Amino acid sequence: MENVVELKNVTKQFKDFSVENINLQVKQGFVTGFIGANGAGKSTTIKIIMNLLKPDAGEVKLFGLDYETHEKEIKERIGFVYDGNVFFEGLNLKDIKRIVAPAYKHWDDKLFYQYVEQFELPMNKAIKTFSKGMQMKASLAIALSHHAELIIMDEPTAGLDPIFRRELLVLLQELMLDGNRTIFFSTHITTDLDRIADYIAFIQGGRIVFNQSIHDVAENYALVKGGMDLLDRDTEKAFIHIHRASTGFEALTDNIQSVENVFGDTVVIERASLEDIMYYLKGGTHYV
């Protein structure tokens, strides 16, 4: 299976933050959700993927190519949808199309107007008058109109109302039907990914915690609940992090078989949501 994006041991250091030894693969033809709290390193990683930041160390390849010798070819094949307006606010969509279209060899006017109509976007109104949802739709229409193979979305649903978020997710599912596109979807709203993601990459504190299929995440991670009397130095080794309360404990594990071997049927084992995993890993992170 071909990887559209490959980051190998990528490190970028800033004064008060760094992403370190990032190993990340985005598989062709699938939706990869990129999760992590605000400030975890999602946007920095995306800027490295987009060649807006140069890593201090490591290797970055898109479509098997490096930016040093193939930057124009790579960017022809990428569409970027950002959280917010990336265009000059005084321009309207007609102006933006006139400026952007010549930059892409595969720009498709017919497709552009098809998406403008589908998204109900006005061509002659300034972008600054667009709602947040409309601005996001405009970015998506432009990304799709040059037949981008990789769509990179940085927090596209942040600040959107629930109805529009649902509409966006349905649209993204439809876009994936032909099997020719890959979507890399950064978000801290994990419920969005339960609907559309095939793979989940989780970053915390500038490091990748895991990069797995959503099926494997569901199979590997679980919440375990039981009485405090069951915990001791040995049994606690089955957990990544434990929350203790007067009524008992709740803990996260990434090894359900180990928990079953240690505790048998004396505990309750439940599926852990992505939100549960993010919350509990703050207390005891395992890095890959």
TrEMBL record:
Keywords: ATP-binding, Hydrolase, Nucleotide-binding, Transport. Pfam families: ABC_tran. Its EC number is 3.6.3.-. SUPFAM superfamilies: P-loop containing nucleoside triphosphate hydrolases. GO terms for molecular function: ATP binding; ATP hydrolysis activity. InterPro entries: AAA+_ATPase, ABC_transporter-like_ATP-bd, ABC_transporter-like_CS, ABC_Transporter_VariousFunc, P-loop_NTPase. Residues 5-230 form the ABC transporter domain. It comes from the Bacteria. Signal peptide: none annotated. This is ABC transporter ATP-binding protein. The lineage of its organism: Bacteria, Bacillati, Bacillota, Bacilli, Bacillales. The gene is drrA_2.
